[in-house]
Every structure is written in C-alpha cells, then in structure tokens.
Amino acid sequence: MTRLDSREITVPYAWRSTREISSAASWRSQRPILELDKCTGCMVCWKFCPEPAIIPDGKKVRFDLSACKGCGVCEETCAPRAIHMETEGL
Ligand code: SF4
Ligand code: SF4
Q1: I want to staple 28 with a disulfide (CB 3.0 to 4.6 A). Which of 12, 59, 70, 76 is the partner?
Q2: Extents of the domains making up the chain
Q3: Does any ligand 2 atom lie closer than 6 A to the CB of residue 32?
Q4: CA dist., res. 16 & res. 53, Å (int)
Q5: 53 lines ligand 2 (CB under 6 A)
Q6: Are the beta carbons of 80 and 38 closer than 8 angstroms?
Q7: What architecture is the 30-90 domain classified under in CATH?
Q8: Confidence of residue 32 (pLDDT cuts 50, 70, 90)
Q9: pLDDT of residue 56
Q10: 65 Cβ below 6 A of ligand 1
Q11: pLDDT > 70: percent of the chain
Q12: Which ligand is nearest to the CA of 48?
C-alpha cells in the first residue's frame, strides 16, 4: 500500500485565498468600478468582500485590485448601486 506523505497533500485551488494564488490581476475576468458620488460610505461592500480588496478610505472606500478576484459580491451588496463590474481589458 502506498503511504500518502502529508507534504503531498495540496489544498484545492478554489480553497486558496487570492493572496496565496498570487495577484488576481493575472486571471480576474472583471473588475469593480466605484462611482464615488453614489457611495454613502456604509461599508456593506467591505463587510461582504471575501478578500482584503476593499479598503476604507475616509468616508468612502477604494479597491486594492491586486487582491480583488472579480467575484462581484460588492456590486450585489451595494444598495446605492455605486459599484459596477467591468470586463477586464475593455
Ligand atoms: S456598499 Fe456601496 S455605498 Fe456602501 S461603502 Fe460600499 S460602495 Fe459605498
Ligand atoms: S469583486 Fe469581489 S473580491 Fe473584488 S472587491 Fe468586489 S467583492 Fe471584493
């Protein structure tokens, strides 16, 4: 019987955080765009973002696109519709 060395067990790709995989900018298909004048600073997007990609900035937020995987959760959770996703490379 073949013994499985614990060092050979790899964590599935989907379970890794964006930081572990490397910069998300290399594989993300869309990116969030913020309309500052619509942002109320409620921080709901910051609360639900699964990555450390939304940074409180004064009474608004800004994105760290090196950590953003383009999931669109921020767009879905922003009630004032201040965020929209844009296809990369356009
Ligand atoms: S959820 Fe929308 S309004 Fe609230 S902080 Fe984020 S971008 Fe601004
Ligand atoms: S697209 Fe996803 S990872 Fe990027 S800022 Fe929005 S919620 Fe966070």
Answers
A1: 70
A2: 30-90
A3: yes
A4: 15
A5: yes
A6: yes
A7: 2-Layer Sandwich (3.30)
A8: very high
A9: 97
A10: no
A11: 74
A12: 2
Distance in angstroms (rounded) separating the CA atoms of residues 84 and 78 = 9
Q: What are phi and psi of 87, to 5 degrees?
A: -65, 135
Q: Please tell me if the CB atom of residue 63 comes closer than 6 angstroms to any atom of ligand 2.
A: yes
Q: How far is the CA of 82 from the centre of ligand 1 (A)?
A: 6
Angle at alpha carbon of residue 58, lines to 82 and 62, rounded to 5°: 45
Number of residues written out for the chain: 90
- Model pTM score: 0.78
Determine phi and psi for 43, rounding to 5 degrees. 70, 15
Does the structure show a pLDDT above 70 at 12?
no
Residue 28 has pLDDT above 70, yes or no: yes
CB of residue 54 inside a 6 A radius of ligand 2: yes
pLDDT exceeds cutoff 80 at 21 = no
